[in-house]
Amino acid sequence: MAAGYGQLLRTRYAARLLAGTLVGRLPNATGPLAVVLFARAEGGSYALAGGLSAVYGLCNAVGQPLLGRAVDRYGQPRIMLPASVLSALGMVLLAVVGLDPLPVAYAAMVMAGFFTPPLEGGLRALWPGVLGRADRLHAAYALDAAAQEVMFTVGPLLVTLCVAVWSERAALLVINLIGVLGALSVVVSPPSRRWRSAPREAHWLGALRSGGMLVVLGTYFFVGIALGSVAVAAVAYADEHGGGMVSSYLLSALSGGALLGGVVYGAREWPGEPENRLRVLIVLVALGFVPLALAPGVLGMTLLAGLSGLFFAPSLACAFVVVDRHAPKGTVTEAFSWLVTAFVVGSSVGMTVEGPAVEAGGAAAGFAVAGAGGLAALAVMLTARRFLPPLAAPSTTVATGPAAAENDRNDADDPGFRTRHQA
C-alpha cells in the first residue's frame, strides 16, 4: 500500500501539486470558522457571525463552477491566481474594516467566497497528464480525497493556534496569505501552465448537459445533507452526554474513518466499471449513516461515526472518475467544481434543517436526518441509473506531448443528452 502511494508521489510534480492544492484550499476549509471567531471577537452576535459565514459559503458554491468554466476556457494561471488574490483581499477587507459598516462586511464575504479558486477541480484535471496512466487515476483521486480529511482536521487547529498566539484578525490574514502561496505554487508549475482543455461546444448548460453528471450531482447533494447534519447532531449529542470533547470524538472518528477508507481504496485496482462500483459504494455510504439514529453510548456512537465515514472517501474518489468520464468535452474543471458545489450546498441545507430536527427530537432525530440524506442519495443513484450507464474504458495510457495536458479522454460530447435534444 505504502509503496503504491510512494510511487505515485514520486511521479514528477505529483507531490507538489497535491501539497500546493491542499495549502491553497486552506482558506476554504477554515473560512467559516475563522469568520465566526472574528465576528464574535468584534462583538457581533452568533446570528451575525452565522450570517456572514453563510454568505461566504453560498458565494463559494456559486463561484466554483463559474470559475471552473473560465479555467476550461482560459487556462489555470490566468484564472486561479487572480481569483486567489481577490478572495484573500475580501478577507483582508473584513479584517481591516471589521463589522462596521455592516454592508461592507457582507460585501467582503461575497468577494472572498465567490473568488475562491477552483483548485480542487483543477488538480483533478491535471492528474491524467501528470501520471501518464489512466489506470492510476483512481489511486490519485483516492489519495486526494483522503488528504482532504487531513486538511479539514489540521485547518481548524491552525486557526485556533493563530488566535491563541496573535488574534482573530491575524488568523484571517495568515490563513489567506498561506492560501495565496499554495495557489501560486500550483499555477506556476509546468503542468498547470501547459494544461489546456479540449475544444468545447458552446452551450449555456456547460457540464450540466450530461445526464450522468446530473445523477452524480443529485446524489452528492444528499450525501452533503447527511454530512452537514452530522456536524450539528454531534454537538446536540455531546450536550446530552456530558458535553466536553464528545462532539470532537464523533467528528474525528468520522474523518478518521474516511481517511482510512480512502487510503485502503486507492491502494489497489478494482474490477468492473466505475459507474457500477459507485452504486455499490453509495449503498455502503447510506447504510453507514442509518445506524447513527440509534444514538448509543459515547463509545458505541464513536464507533458508528467511524463506520459512517469509512466509505465516504472511496465513494468520492470513485465519483471523480465517473465525473471525468461523463463530463462533456472541454468542461472537466467546471464539472469537478459542480461536484464540489453540490456537496457544499447539500451540507448547508443539512445544517439548516438539522436545527429544527434536534429541537423536536434531540440528537437521535438529528442523526435520523443524516440517515434520511444517505437513503435519498441512494434513491437518486438507483432510480436514475439509466442516465449513468457504464462507458467504454479509456486507454490505460494517456497521450504525451501537448495532449498530455488534456483531461477529456472520453469522446462522448454528451453521454446523457445529445445535441439534438438538449434540455
From TrEMBL:
Biased composition (Basic and acidic residues): 406-417
InterPro entries given in the database record: MFS, MFS_dom, MFS_trans_sf
Membrane-protein topology: Multi-pass membrane protein
Keyword rRNA-binding annotated: no
Residue ranges of domain Major facilitator superfamily (MFS) profile in the record: 212-423
Chain residue ranges for the region called Disordered: 398-423
Protein name as catalogued: MFS transporter
GO molecular function: transmembrane transporter activity
Stretches that traverse the bilayer: 46-67, 79-99, 172-190, 211-237, 249-266, 278-295, 301-323, 335-353, 365-384
